[in-house]
Amino acid sequence: FLGLIVTQRLTQCTQVQRRGRSGTCCGWSRCCGMGDFRPRTVWLGHPEKREQRYPRNVINNQKYNFFTFLPGVLFNQFKYFFNLYFLLLACSQFVNELRLGALYTYWVPLGFVLIITIVREAVEEVRCFLRDKEVNSQIYSKLSTRGTVKVKSSSIQVGDLIIVEKNQRVPADMIFLRTSEKNGSCFLRTDQLDGETDWKLRLPVSCTQRLPTAADLLQIRSYVYAEEPNIDIHNFIGTFTREDGDPPVNESLSIENTLWASTVIASGTVVGVVVYTGKELRSVMNTSNPRHKIGLFDLEVNCLTKILFGALVVVSLVMVALQHFAGRWYLQIFRFLLLFSNIVPISLRVNLDMGKMVFSWMIRKDSKIPGTVVRASTIPEQLGRISYLLTDKTGTLTQNEMVFRRLHLGTVAYGMDSMDEVQSHVFSAYTQPSHDLPTSRAPAATKVRKTISSRVHEAVKAIALVHNVTPVYESNGVTDQAEAEQHYEDTCRVYQASSPDEVSLVQWTESVGLTLVGRDQSSMQLRTPSGQILNFTILQIFPFTYESKRMGIIVRDETTGEITFYMKGADVVMAGIVQYNDWLEEECGNMAREGLRVLVVAKKSLTEEQYQDFEARYVQAKLSVHDRSLKVATVIESLEMEMELLCLTGVEDQLQADVRPTLEILRNAGIKVWMLTGDKLETATCTAKNAHLVTRNQDIHVFRPVTTRGEAHLELNAFRRKHDCALVISGDSLEVCLKFYEYEFMELACQCPAVVCCRCAPTQKAQIVRLLQERTGKLTCAVDGGLESVCVCVQEGKQASLAADFSVSQFKHLGRLLMVHGRNSYKRSAALSQFVIHRSLCISTMQAVFSSVFYFASVPLYQGFLIIGYSTIYTMFPVFSLVLDKDVKSEVAMLYPELYKDLLKGRPLSFKTFLIWVLISIYQGSIIMYGALLLFESEFVHIVAISFTSLILTELLMVALTVQTWHWLMIVAELLSLACYIASLVFLHEFIDVYFIATLSFVWKVTAITLVSCLPLYILKYLRRRFSPPSYSKLTS
Asked: Which residues are the signal sequence here (predicted)?
């Protein structure tokens, strides 16, 4: 999945708040008497030996409980000014001096709005409760003195020994003690924890893995010391101690020995001891309830409703002023505020919320973008106003499926077309012993060839050894698993690894003759082209991290006894580790320009004494509890010096399907695309060209590396002189520019058609998103992907896919999501909000005219059910049916992305369109009221009948006037509303003269008034479409 988040200039309103819950947890812990978070000593299989109380292992994602639900929902509704305002209006009807009619006139609309909100919240809470119940009720096996017993996830305690099967979720944070896998390790799927699709290798505690059976875990006296709970999912410090050993065993524990809750076991069956539960789980502490998001559109609507409230106050004051503030004028002001309260429509919020639910449902159900997930159903219209799109490269624009393309030895390079040469070199290295070639007969050319051959062999061997890949054998229907494993059956072998880069390298070494056929925690087996098995003992592994950008392994060749330290990593770190050479930097640049991901491979031979000395220091550093990572890094760095450079490898990450047309659509829609990646400058530039992020006729300005304020100033001046060119800048230079010239840099960068930031750290990505929002005030959409590192806007790979507002399965779906659904959601929301305001202003204008004619009396024009029915059963369905309206077909919206560009100016909902609708409302309200006063004959009740019927018909006709494309549900809504009104006239004899409405006089008067109120608008609409048509109408005609 691609994580996609839409953010806006008001960071506090829309930014995803992924703060840790540690503060909350601490408060909760204190309340429960559990104290602050502290380190702990956990005895294996003896939860009763605990030193402190630990939280229950219950997952609870609900916002409320049974007792707090109703008070909580009501508080969240009435903490907003307008909801509180309507509550005060309704309450004021209990005061006799302020009462304007029946109580239900004010309480029913308010109750309707609240009931919809309560039902929606209740549905969400029930769903949440059922999801939590399902997780908490999952059954696991627990090792106990009575044997293996079944236990619910919610009953698991700190100290329990839990068995987790393959493809089962880990129920609590555990230390990995044993695995059923022969290689002595297991793989984890962590996508639900950190958003990364790469599998993670985990290693059990070696002391417990060596025990004959899992039941022996209960027979030994051992404990785990674990640090206090914290939010860091990438690090852990602890120790394992076995007291009854001779001598006592002490082992250091790190992230490699952990199984965090919410991860899934991908291989084998594992046993672990629980160290954290409930609110102390890493996954829980990394999750906070996302704040309710308010979109830019909602803020604009709030602004308009504030203007309407101002108008309400002004109209009330004017009415009292025209009475010359006579008598108890302050009471009259309140009565007029109540009388004109319709100016601020109570149904606006509900209509928009229900509309958003419909838009979210449409996105989910769109068969052309399958697998799309909407997590923020409150902001779908934001997708229609994106100005900047920030995207990652790996897994977003590219597939994150690696293909080996190049092997470079400095003096010679092998591409895809010359891999057979590599194969022959490897074959000759293992089939022709060196003494077979007599020195006397070997001319100079042979010596060179032999040197190349041995160098190729060394490089291939290094690549086949320096990795964390495990070959796994599965039954293929012909051969069973045990037999396949015994004979290293090629057809049954699958490679498991945490990174697709590593798998592609091992698959390549297999293709040239050196095959990885077996691996466990302490050894590795390679098969040569002649079928001979080479055995290597793994002495140490230094895994890859984002900080170190390299991985290393120390192995002993069982045949010769040689100890070799192999390392591979990014050129930027390896350049300082390998011996001096004159080709590394240049060739890395050349390969990166071809769009290849480059790794540098090196080795260093160690004597037994050197290794023993290193191991002693390394074990000592790993056992320290304070500053462990620093001490360990220092010891490893003592080895990383003067290493022999073996080769460069180049793998290609291919573009996703339809990336180019999608980027072109976004560009034509007026959306500026920025690519933020951790790759090399040359690789990033090549991908940008390849994906057509930078068009062929565009110049590229590569921002030179800068380290000081002066250099940054000069380079910014040089960049300022360029026009319409894409910018490519490295993370280091970006940091310098943002430190000294933040405003100037952002101003220049925002003018670029495309920006590529390479060697960009996750924190810098967050900073760029924030700065774009603050500096431009425009909506920003950050995409990061593949779930491989679904960094959504702010943090790479941490809870990101789950923090995303919208998730799409492929980058190409982004085009339709924005061009079709984003555009429709925004235009429909704008039309709906303005129509609800128009509906309220119409009846308020009529009330104002009525009061003015009758000596500014604060008497309501419509009583009881009429006022409620007007905004509900008589007009609600036609007005709400505008959420189905569309100006162009989805195919046209995709074909002409320029239509999207019009929305970026915010024209569908602006002060201009608002003013037009206000004028239309005043005109129609005045016409209907004055028409009714002019045409009624004797009875006051005739005014009500004529004006109210004209008002209902006018609203239905105005909906028809607004609709661009008719949907059958719109027609049903119109006819149903009209039928409801006609049918209800029988019951409205208290307000309307039923005999009068059956006369011809009533019919012609209503028809005349309705025509005068609507016909001019129809004529104006026709003339506008004829002489100044909007862009979309040109395409539909």
From this structure: none
